[in-house]
Design brief:
Length: 266
């Protein structure tokens, strides 16, 4: 976690502008405005059901897969509107990768789990290039030394922590600019969680990371910026406060933020 002065000097990688999300007639998110800094960790916190994961999925248009979902307002990636009709969604999802709550390794080898994305995107598919991709990706998640001689091993045989690291490596193999992580430590024990948190901070030197977490201590440990969300009186998920993490936790500007972080509700 960096101080406020360091935070303010970073350029904006993604931002939302009057963002709304509807599922049919139900409004899930209302008027979300936030700017996410490059090469930083942004945490999204708030009580269950306030739209944190829905917001995260908007950043790489995963909600497009839900027929009744409708997004209004705008999301910009490097000032390009990602919901513009000319946006290549496949290209967007290679630039904005995602790691889910539970490890979702594929029932294939460690090697094949990592190269499936580059192969699908028809990148350089010669064996040497794929081998280099696997090594680079596994090194980034600190798995190369332990798995380099077991690349043909089924990924489902790995520990839960190794599987989650492999999922992160699979996302990194696409050479993304942004990595979304939806409660990605919730299935891990405390020691494994700390190791993945250390990994997040290492990766933030190169990638922009956005995490959803119910663990406020985790947000305080790793995030540069934190967004607090809750449901308003109309049952719509809203952004209450978005500040440098230390400032939000020690000097919240909104009494609802203070009530949540002190455990009075949520």
């Amino acid at each position: 976690m960096k101080n406020s002065k360091e935070n303010s000097s970073k350029r904006i990688k993604m931002r939302t502008e009057n963002l709304n999300l509807h599922y049919g007639t139900f409004q899930a998110l209302g008027d979300i405005n936030m700017a996410i800094q490059q090469c930083s960790i942004t945490a999204i916190i708030g009580p269950s059901g306030c739209g944190k994961s829905s917001l995260l999925r908007i950043f790489n248009r995963m909600n497009d897969l839900i027929p009744v979902a409708k997004v209004s307002g705008e999301v910009y990636l490097d000032e390009q509107p990602i919901y513009h009709k000319d946006m290549d969604v496949a290209d967007l999802r290679s630039r904005v990768g995602m790691v889910f709550q539970k490890p979702n390794v594929f029932p294939m080898s460690i090697y094949e789990n990592i190269v499936i994305g580059p192969r699908h995107q028809q990148r350089n598919n010669n064996k040497s290039a794929l081998d280099n991709c696997v090594e680079k990706s596994l090194r980034q998640v600190n798995l190369w030394d332990s798995l380099k001689d077991e690349l043909k091993r089924p990924a489902l045989e790995l520990t839960t922590e190794q599987q989650q690291r492999l999922c992160i490596a699979r996302a990194l193999a696409m050479e993304p600019e942004v990595v979304l992580m939806d409660e990605s430590c919730s299935a891990l024990d405390p020691e494994a969680t700390m190791r993945v948190e250390d990994l997040m901070m290492e990766l933030a030197e190169k990638y922009t990371i956005i995490i959803v977490t119910h663990n406020m201590e985790q947000a305080l440990r790793v995030a540069d910026m934190t967004a607090f969300m809750m449901i308003n009186d109309n049952k719509v998920g809203t952004l209450v406060e978005y500040e440098a993490t230390l400032e939000l936790f020690t000097q919240p500007k909104d009494p609802r933020t203070e009530g949540y972080i002190t455990g009075r509700f949520g």
